[in-house]
Design a protein that fits this description.
2 copies of one chain form a homodimer. The first copy, chain A, is α/β, with parallel strands linked by helices and about 220 residues long. Chain A has one domain (about 20-220): P-loop containing nucleotide triphosphate hydrolases (Rossmann fold, 3-Layer(aba) Sandwich). The first copy, chain A, contains 8 helices and 8 strands; from the N terminus they run βαβαβαβαββααβαβα. Chain A has helices spanning about 15-30, 45-55, 75-80, 100-110, 150-155, 155-160, 180-190, 205-220, and strands at about 5-10, 35-40, 65-70, 85-90, 115-120, 135-145, 165, 195. The radius of gyration of chain A is 16 Å and the shape is globular. The termini of chain A are far apart.
């Protein structure tokens, strides 16, 4: 038996997802829970980043993770092993989560006692960018092997993101990846985007990311 | 001015995409053109694989490439430089191509004099797998940095693929990637899937892929 619930989320009944996302943010604000929407392509390192983040923050913040997947449970299992409460959301083939699907997960999860909930969205640089999930902020991970041209090709994702983790910097020597060009292209799309080069494998650069999360949660609770 | 056309393709008017895809395949059969649908995540190496494939086959096959992108033209420019005819399809934010969108590209491109047309689908492991484009076969690229668990997490893509290129094997020493496990997971989804480990960067393993393409085009024209 799994140590986490598995929820089959249903497509939203709300025509106006943006208004619904605002309602969900207010609900979460009322209970003092910060929701972060984490997006990336498959294989960029969302789960590895989360595992290391949980290890770093679990003694100071009450953490939960909602794992959205088309139909597997491998990520929720990994997160549970890492020591955080987790729930698995199955999207039934859908390539994204909207605010109401996120709310279904939040309600089943029971988040009243959590400071920070991270929603690991479906691995996809396209569709998830189109839907406000009700999260306070959006984080996107791009990994070095994917190439520095991605903000040119998947512009919306970089426009809606508040923070960009450039992951797998431990393999920079083996790829034609130009961090300066990535920064230039990403800021063309979104001048306010904060960029943290990290390696979820070695831990390099992760402290700046943890500090960002700490500040975000603190501000959300005090405002 | 671009050396290639840019087409804004519109969402299909056909309710039954599968039947429409069969019609498109028959149209292409009638003119002796083989259409391959090439899919992967962003950054797996679709364009690099195509550039090397064009260099290897352009003297024996009449080649064309249709580049589907949400709204950029960077790939069509790269393909044109590599020496193949190319056309850029803009999907206007849509995460996949269906058969009618593919037909719009085929008609604008003018493919009567081509032996092999490769459709580079939108970078996405989810949505493109759900739509038959009218191609004769589906190829998917998974790159080493993405991880060997992807057939577990994105099952449909591996079910609909006829051939899997495992790209970036030149960086195998730097990643926890198990080719045997990938093969096992991929064959769980699709026992008939042909798998070619390759490096589009160094050229390693690419000959088996070229041979597969040569055989496919020859069989299609002779049947």
């Amino acid at each position: 038996m799994n140590p986490f619930k598995v929820i089959e989320v249903k497509e939203s009944i709300f025509a106006d997802n943006n208004a619904d996302a605002d309602r969900l943010r207010q609900e979460l604000k009322g209970q003092g829970t910060y929701l972060l929407n984490l997006m990336s392509s498959p294989g960029s390192g969302k789960t590895s980043t989360l595992k290391r983040t949980i290890a770093a923050l679990k003694d100071e913040l009450r953490l939960g993770v909602m794992e959205a997947d088309i139909d597997s449970d491998v990520d929720a299992a990994a997160i549970t092993e890492a020591g955080a409460r987790a729930i698995q959301l199955h999207t039934g083939g859908m390539c994204h989560l909207d605010a109401d699907m996120t709310r279904q997960g939040i309600r089943e999860f029971g988040t009243e006692d959590l400071d920070l909930v991270i929603l690991e969205n479906v691995g996809n640089l396209v569709c998830p960018a189109e839907f406000d999930t009700g999260a306070v902020k959006n984080a996107v991970i791009l990994s070095v092997p994917e190439g520095h041209d991605k903000p040119l090709k998947y512009p919306l994702m970089f426009e809606v993101a508040n923070v960009l983790l450039v992951n797998k910097i431990d393999v920079l020597p083996y790829f034609d990846f130009d961090l300066e060009k990535l920064t230039e292209y990403a800021h063309m799309r979104n001048p306010g985007l904060q960029i943290f080069p990290v390696s979820a494998k070695t831990g390099e650069g992760m402290d700046a990311w943890y500090d960002w999360l700490r500040r975000e949660v603190k501000n959300w609770k005090s405002k």
